[in-house]
Amino acid sequence: MSGALPLADPGRFVPQTMRLPGSTARFLARRSAAAGTTVIVAMAAVALLADFLASDRPIALHRDGRTYLLSNLFDYADLRGVDNRMLRRNMRPGDWAVFPLHERGPYSLAGFDEGGPPPQPPGGGRFLGTDNAGRDTFARLVHGTRVSLAVGAGATLLCAALGTALGLAAGYFGGKVDLVVVRLAEIVLNFPLLFILLAVQGLLSRASLAGMVAAIALTRWCEPCLLVRAEARRVRTQGYVEAARALGATPARVLWRHVLPNSVTPLYTAVPLGIASVVLLESALGFLGFGAPEPLASWGGLLADGFRGIGNPAARPLLLLPGLAVFAAASAFNLVGEALRDALDPRSTGGA
Amino acid sequence: MRRFLLRRFSLLLPGFFGITFAVFVLVRAAPGDPLASAGDEGVAAGSVTAAAIREYRAHAGLDDPVPTGYVRWLGGLVRGDLGRSFKDGQPVARKLADALPVTLLLSGLALLIVWAVAVPAGVLCALRPGSALDRATSTTFFALHSMPVPWLAMLLVATLGAPGLLPIQGLRTEGVDGIADRLAHLVLPLTCLAAGAFAFVSRYVRAGLLDVLRQDFVRAAQARGLPPHRVLWHAMRNVLPGLFVLLGLALPGLVGGAVIVERVFGLPGMGRLAFEAVLSRDLPVIMGNTALAGVMTMTGLLLADVAGAAADPRLRGSVP
């Protein structure tokens, strides 16, 4: 620690404008933002195309003179009990099929003729092996991406909606409403979250995705709420709001048309960061056995499967990859969130 | 000041009632009886009579309407009686008293490590923004922050625990005494607990200090010829109040932050108690846990209020 303290560097001065082109440029100029966006897009593609990447049935099948389209998505009565492996063995002349990239689904168990007892090591048609129950690890990872990202995005958007509604009301009306909402938000925000989530998830009649999303939303609305409230308090005193009121606009219209659009800026940052933390939360809940209900695959549930097989070299992929997926997703959303914050905040100094 | 704190406190109590009531309702409304799992097996095996279960239900207040049950529970809470566990009949207060020190030890040490590392790191980064040190620190903390705790724990167990380098279960080896053994048992759990928290604290210090360093009074202090460490202290004084608020807010996390770590490493703390209570629908234990977490949350918020108000008198008047 020698020399003088650094003062503001005039060369780094960023003009105090909030126009989108500038912020978009600043966002894209960051390599970390680009990398994060790439990872997110790739994962979203995997989530959307999960049934084409790993499935028990062909994408299209022509058999006995009949054509089954998208049999990986739709359940044809004629195809019950039929899977890729069986089809490959019994192709007759004139039959054809378009197989998915990976010919195993996330739920079917390994046959007795395949490898030894589960978990099976990578090999054969399963390049990541199976879990303890004999289900294909790659297929479960791919389909788990869908569940985990859906929970992350769904719960976060619900949180944002709930938080925005409460924050708008608190910030705009002020007074007692403000007092109650803010104090409640502070308490819920600081309450040990996992306790409540455990209680909610553990006690629902049966664990369900919707239940988990609702539980997360009900315990995590506080942060968006406090952010939006602060903005709404600022916006409330602006000239255009007073003008609208003076012109006789109803409170609902003022809130909807004027306050809301000008108060949601912090959410551009809070939503990606929120998704990152909900993905982490899902992994924690799933790990404890309170995540997505079996047999649904989710990253958290897969982490728990990996923990069960921790001493078994055959289950090594299950130990490493689900966690890596969570880590990659959380990092990507965090990177994007931070890049957005820096891009939208003209005073920001860059860096973390 | 006292009036301010009283007002803040009075606003906390409804929150406490709200959360405990919500959990109470949830547990009671959940389908499936808290006694069902144990009771049915017992009846089938002939060791428990249906009459005994009915008697126990009445005694435990499970037949009361929910509001009555909640008020009864609150009454007990005021008298310091948290009831007895449905599972093993032990007083809940005793179970909490057994579990709390373990968790406080873990989380307290983890908090200490986080602050001892993250605050100096944040200061150093703020002094050299954009430097290699700054970027390396930020990247490392960022990565640790995005790391799922169960995964980190599993990786540590697989790489360091399995070859026998470090113990992975419990707080001490049976039959072995001594501080070295106990410390060795804490290494992996503490690593997992601390890992994710560095980023937040160091970032807060860095951002806060950077903001202050840009202000005129720092420039003035430098111009007066104060030595750098005195200037730094001037600047830090403006960051500290916020840090104290953060420290207060870290309090609730002390009781509830270790569920996963306690589960992986087999530590008999609050997290494991809560986890097992939920699994067995042990209403009194769940409520005891919630109440304790609620008290810690309120205390933390109040301490944060005190810290904030002590540092900035303006807060006392303006904030609700």
What profile does the largest beta sheet of chain B have?
none
* Low-pLDDT residue spans of chain B: none
Mean pLDDT of chain B: 82
Largest sheet geometry of chain A: 3 strands, antiparallel
The topology string of helices and strands of chain A comes to: HHHEEHEHHHHHHHHHH
Number of strands of chain A: 3
User: How much is the radius of gyration of chain B in Å?
Assistant: 24 Å
Topology order of chain B in helix (H) and strand (E) letters: HHHHHHHHHHHHHHHHH
- Principal-axis shape of chain B equals flat
- The separation of the N and C termini of chain B measures 13 Å
The class by helix and strand makeup of chain A works out as mainly alpha
Strand adjacency order, main sheet of chain A: 2-1-3
Q: Please compute the radius of gyration of chain A using only Cα atoms.
A: 25 Å
Helix content estimate of chain A: 55-70%
Low-confidence stretches of chain A: 1-19
Oligomer: heterodimer
Please characterize this protein's 3D structure.
The complex is a heterodimer of chains A (352) and B (320). In chain A, a hairpin with a 2-residue loop joins strand 1 (60-63) and strand 2 (66-69). With 352 residues, chain A is mostly helical. Chain A has helices at 20-29, 31-48, 50-53, 84-89, 137-173, 175-190, 193-203, 209-220, 222-236, 239-246, 251-263, 265-288, 299-308, 316-344; strands at 60-63, 66-69, 96-98. In chain A, strands 2-1-3 form a 3-stranded antiparallel sheet, with no helix packed on it. Chain B has 320 residues and is an all-alpha fold. In chain B, 76% of the residues lie in helices and 0% in strands. Chain B is built from 17 helices and no strands. Chain B has helices spanning 2-29, 36-45, 50-60, 66-79, 92-127, 132-145, 149-161, 179-195, 198-213, 216-223, 228-237, 240-249, 251-256, 259-264, 270-279, 283-311, 314-318. Chains A and B meet through helix 6, helix 7, helix 12, helix 13 and helix 14 of A and helix 1, helix 6, helix 7, helix 9 and helix 10 of B.
